[in-house]
Amino acid sequence: MSRLDKIKEQNPELNLSLLDIIASVEPTDSYKYMQFLVKVLKDEYLKKGNYDGFYKGICITLFGYDNLSNLIEFEKHSRANRIEKSDIGTYRNFEDITTAVKKADEIVRLKEVEKQVKKLYETDTWLVLIPLSYEASKVYGSNTKWCTTQQQHWNTYRSRYKLIYIINKRTNGKWAVSCDSHGGAVQGWLANDKESSPFNFPLPPDIFGILAEEVQKSETVDDLSKNKEIEGVIKSKDLTVGEYTRAISSNNGASIATMTGNTSLDLNQLMGVLGVDINQVITNSLRTGSIDDREELPF
User: Fold this and answer.
1) Are 169 and 209 in a shared domain?
2) Do residues 280 and 219 share a domain?
3) Domain boundary at 224, 250, 265, which?
4) Same domain, residue pair 75 and 157
5) Per residue, what are the HEC states of 202-254?
6) Assigned domain for 117 exists
7) Is residue 121 part of a domain?
8) Is residue 105 included in any domain, yes or no?
9) At what angle do helices 34-45 and 278-288 cross, to 10 degrees?
10) I want to staple 54 with a disulfide (CB 3.0 to 4.6 A). Which of 8, 221, 251, 289 is the partner?
11) Are residues 246 and 263 in the same domain?
12) At what angle do helices 94-114 and 65-79 cross, to 10 degrees?
């Protein structure tokens, strides 16, 4: 017996045909209006004969587009071993699924951010690096008041300065050093963004040696970035729910194409770009079954 057959056996009250469901709204005991209801269903909602799309449209209406999208992402993350508890039986509702997907998305994001830094030194306790993107600056500068964790200031610093972040991985203590490539002063910054001489930082001798070598180099963040498109990629990701998703709007009818890697494009964001009423989209999906063409829900 297949898993589906077993579920049908365990839930006979839900093992109904579409005709059984339509019959539940039939106003007579003799099913006098059933043929009429079936005729309207076929004429109004199944003109293209896309029965499969119609059924999926019903499921989208029942469970919600975002919920089903997150369920698909949950499966993708599970296969990649990024879900801590992959047994679906331990989840109570879609909110739990969404929470697990967000955690897995963060794992993917952090792995991507790791590629956007230049590591100068690392031990079990210490990490010294140069952030090469705003996203990396924001992640490794988290829980500080450094202005370079803000987009507008990052854009100013990256073209003129080299930034070095020093992190104590055990205590999460953080310090920063900025080097002006135009021959300006070398400045040190505490986590609260107060200026302090780097020589006053509580660092081991090895790190002081690295800093002494790095501050003598006349180079900026932009100079060190091997991939000049890093910033553009990060900005694109800010518009999506997660990794590798992009919305491309063309001038011909404002068509939208989506490419999904680890997460799906948020439907409300997409509808906002197009100026479309989401309720109307769902209604049309029931009538035409067209919503099943979206890559985000590959049933």
Assistant:
1) yes
2) no
3) 224
4) no
5) CCCHHHHHHHHHHCCCCCCHHHHCCCCCHHHHHHHHCCCCCCCCEEEECCCCC
6) no
7) no
8) no
9) 110
10) 289
11) yes
12) 50
pLDDT of res. 48: 78
Distances in Å between the Cα of 4 and the Cα atoms of 18, 67, 78, 138 are: 17, 21, 21, 46
Residue 113 counted as domain residue: no
On whether both 266 and 203 belong to a single domain, the answer is no
pLDDT by residue, tens only, the chain of 299 residues: 899 999 999 999 999 999 999 999 999 999 999 999 999 998 888 887 888 888 888 999 999 999 999 999 999 999 999 999 999 999 999 999 999 999 999 999 889 999 999 999 999 999 999 999 999 999 999 999 999 999 999 998 999 999 999 999 999 999 999 999 887 789 999 999 999 999 999 999 999 999 999 998 889 999 998 654 554 444 334 333 333 333 323 333 333 333 233 333 344 443 443 344 445 544 555 554 444 444 446 55
* Residue at which a domain ends, from 224, 257, 280: 224
Q: What is the pTM of this model?
A: 0.58
Spatial separation of the C-alpha atoms in residues 101 and 72, rounded to whole Å: 10
Question: Which ranges of 2-64 does DSSP label H, i.e. alpha helix?
Answer: 3-10, 18-23, 34-45, 51-63
Domain containing 178: what range? 134-224
Tell me the C-alpha distance between 288 and 44, whole Å: 9
The structural domain count of the chain equals 3
DSSP states along 53-70: HHHHHHHHHHH-HHHHHH
Whether residue 189 sits in one domain with residue 159: yes
